[in-house]
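During the reporting period the student researcher (J.K.) took over the structure-prediction task from the postdoctoral fellow and processed the backlog of single-chain submissions. One of the processed entries is reproduced below for the supervisory committee.
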Amino acid sequence: MKRNHMPDHPDTISQDLSDIRARIEALNIPISVFLGIGYSKGEFRVTERGAEDVSLHVKVPTGEDDFEYISRWLKKRASHEGFKYIGAGLSGEGDLHNLASLLWLENDIVTFVRPNGISEENCARLAVYAREHFKDDETLVVDVEKDCCVSVHDLVSREAYESISTPEEIEALDTLTEKFKGKKIRFISATPRGGGVALMRHAHIRLLHLWGVDASWHVLEERADAFLITKTKFHNVLQGVAKNGTELTERDIEVYQGWMRENAELLEDTITDADVIVVDDPQPSGLIPFIKEKNPDAKIIYRSHIQIVSELTDVSGTPQNRVWNFIWKFAQQADLFVSHPIPDFVPENVQKDDVILTPPTTDPLDGLNKPLSDEDMEYYFKLFDKILIEANQKPLDHSRPYVIQVARFDPSKGIPDVLEAFSDVYREFEEGEKPQLVIVGHGSVDDPDGIPIYNLVMELLESEYEELAEDVKVARLPHIDQLLNVLMCGSKVALQLSHREGFEVKVTEALMKGKPLISYNAGGIPLQMKGGVTGFVVEEIGDTESVGKHLLDLLTDEALYDRMSTSAQKFARRDVFTMAGVISWLFLANHLIEHGELPETGEERKNFISQMKELPSHLEILDI
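J.K. obtained the following structure tokens:
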């Protein structure tokens, strides 16, 4: 079976395109509509911009809560008219940020609070404003403004975070933000979208702003030649998944350092204005000398987010040793080295008294994790089916279960292993009862591996796994987080067969949704699971036979599945939520500003680590 292949004859192409359009129309996907909402006490005006432009004026019934009534009214109208409200501009009286938060959490509407007034004309402008913030595929535009600053969207209110946090967490955050008052923290990473670092930073900045912290997040200027170097010759080499013969050349170094000089100029005002600067991963590490030169008083934290194969970086003459020593030349000038909570990820030449081990985080209130209504779930499933049809694949059969792996199309993610393990299980089922497999992930502008790995998967399905190809759904998804949320929620079992992995938050996100997970014993994944309780950890990487056995058990043993599904939700870790992450960053920032450095080994060091461990919901593993 050939997929993603169109015949050359014009008449055949036209017929195929007509067939695709007809199949998409048959999905009956709700019409995308954008809103302008003007609110004043007891009433509101709604302008819809979609198939038609409509303006409605509504009175809130006596005794009703205004904001809750608006939410219910919009939900009822969308259902009746066959609409999906995507975005809304808000204006008017009162605390509109609480209304915005409610519409995001209850109606799945991204909102923009603007001072436009509430007339019909201004509501029309608000609807246009909302529409302009989305691309044609309905992904939210991420604006990068002056000084390469990412404009982070305020999705939820402070009260929303307080409602899902413990009193101890709120007290700690209040205390730390008060202590940080008057100071500025800046984060610098590669890209504004794509991958776990960007997801974290969106959530961190959002929460910091809600507590009044002067925080901002800045990204590097996009350059394809530089990103090719940082992905294939930094990231892949350090993870041990680069192609044989991959070497960092003098020409690569010249290109990278020139790129760093360009970014240092773009970020000069940001650098000179900061009290604490967090540098995420190898890509921007070359900025650290410029930061030291332009703002010697700033405290610098280098955050390593990837699995570094330290047994190779520590061996002279290896490509890993050459790459790491090049990066370490910059990173060692930082005041603090923060790594995933795996001591083996820290190379030997990193001073251990300058290291803190702490996990990445995920956000319970973002599009990846928030609860969605049945109507919204159905909408995103239809959107996924549309994506599959456009890629010449069959839609999901919603009468049969499916297994899922959510990950970037990356050589470290073990996607060929996923196909091999699933193929063995697939053959155990009778026709009509066979499970399906979904392999999905987002792309990133700094990741040139995405398309080649996607193509490799499609080639494997056409050559080695043709008998199951129609039941395998493969897609590089647009950056709509709710799509991943819904696909994970609808799955039966999650896989994470990475060969190399830092600390994969997708594991925690699957467990939060009650999905038993099967993984290899790779990187930080075992720290996120309880093997034999919330899923299975296969000790030997590449042991697809054991993966298949566990998968078959979960698909056929209902008692086992129910027990593990319940345990998955029960044991999902709070220390990888945004609140815990922000508390940790502020604690470290305050300490560096006050003391200049971390205490060295001894009683002072023990006391410092004890203080961090006492932070609410904090990981126990902090020191090495």
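The committee noted the following: The longest strand covers residues 31-40.
J.K. will present the remaining backlog at the next meeting.
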